[in-house]
Amino acid sequence: MADLIQRTAELLVNARQVVALTGAGISVESGIPPFRGKGGLWEKFDPMEVAHIDAFLNDPETVWNLLIKDMKTVLDTARPNAGHIGLVDLERLGVLQTVITQNVDGLHQLAGSSDVIEFHGNFAWLRCLDCSQRIKSTEVDLTRIPPHCQCGGIFRPDCVFFGEMIPHEALVRSQQLSAACDVMLVIGTSATVQPAASMPLIAKDNGADIIEINPEPTPLTARISDLPLMSAAARLMPRLVAAVRQRLPAG
Ligand code: APR
Question: Which residue in 106, 101, 104, 105 sits closest to 170, CA to CA?
Fold first, then answer.
């Protein structure tokens, strides 16, 4: 692993433009369960029954009670971990430019990342189905489920359900940055959900080196990963940042 970390650091300090794509795995050490794999949310719930827009529109009360209330409790108290902080360090060292995240937990911004593309939206906000008014989820009264807007409409989390489009600006900017970067860090994603999972392929097709940080192999590992760092993000990132720092001129 030490050799892989040194080779990754060498690539990062010599890179022209570095982008990170992150998934649920980077937030596991913040106490937020992943979606897939052991202990994943989709082991407990069928995503088509609780995370598809049709399911929400058909029965918002059940989706609120089954999924949203639980997620809200976990997300309201979660804090960034060494994985998120490592990306902030790389940004402050001038090595990393942008984070494209599939996560709706807002932990990259809380850690201090300044350019974060929220590919699947953000759970910290709710939006009214009728008047589209947006409010902070910490301000909603949950004594009545589903919570209602003053206009009488039902509030939904301002994140992307299955069956919905990715916000246009987030999609276009992510595709452009993936095509332009020369190194992509792919951290904590199973790389199985489109269109996010195609960003590393776009990067690779445009000549970028793909660095994967994940304790488990993914469909990318054997196919396009140049440096698969099979480790948990919070354990790996501080070591990677230290190796990068060593290579940069002091001061
Ligand atoms: N550090 C790094 N990676 C980890 C860690 C960790 N500590 N723990 C688990 N992982 C890896 C797992 O091995 C797995 O490959 O993180 C990945 C999590 O995969 P998923 O749960 O599928 O999460 P993600 O890829 O973000 O899911 C994509 O699917 O359900 C939808 O909208 C949801 O954004 C989500 C999308």
Answer: 101
Question: How close is the Cα of 248 to the center of ligand 1, in Å?
Answer: 31
Report the run of H or E that residue 4 belongs to, with start and end. Answer: helix 2-13
pLDDT score at 67:
76
For the chain, residues with pLDDT lower than 50 are none
Between the CA of 62 and the centroid of ligand 1 the distance, in Å, is 25
Q: What is the pLDDT of residue 236?
A: 98
Backbone phi, then psi, for 22, in 5-degree steps?
-120, 155
Q: Which among 218, 185, 204, 179 is positioned nearest to 11, based on CA atoms? A: 185
State pTM to two decimals: 0.96
- Nearest Cα residue to 178 out of 23, 13, 26, 17: 17
Query: 3-state SS of 110-125?
Result: HHCCCCEEECCEEEEE
Give the amino acid at 71: M
Q: Is the beta carbon of 214 within 6 A of some atom in ligand 1?
A: yes
Q: Is the CB of 82 under 6 A from ligand 1?
A: no
Quote the DSSP letter at residue 66: I
Cα angle 65-67-72, degrees, rounded to a multiple of 5: 95
Tell me, what amino acid is at 230? M
How far is the centre of ligand 1, averaged over its atoms, from the C-alpha of 23 (Å)?
5
pLDDT of the residue at 100: 98
pLDDT given for residue 251 in this prediction = 63
| Position in ligand 1 atom list of the atom nearest CA 188 | 3
DSSP β-bridge partners for residue 125: 136
Structure tokens at 190: 């199973």
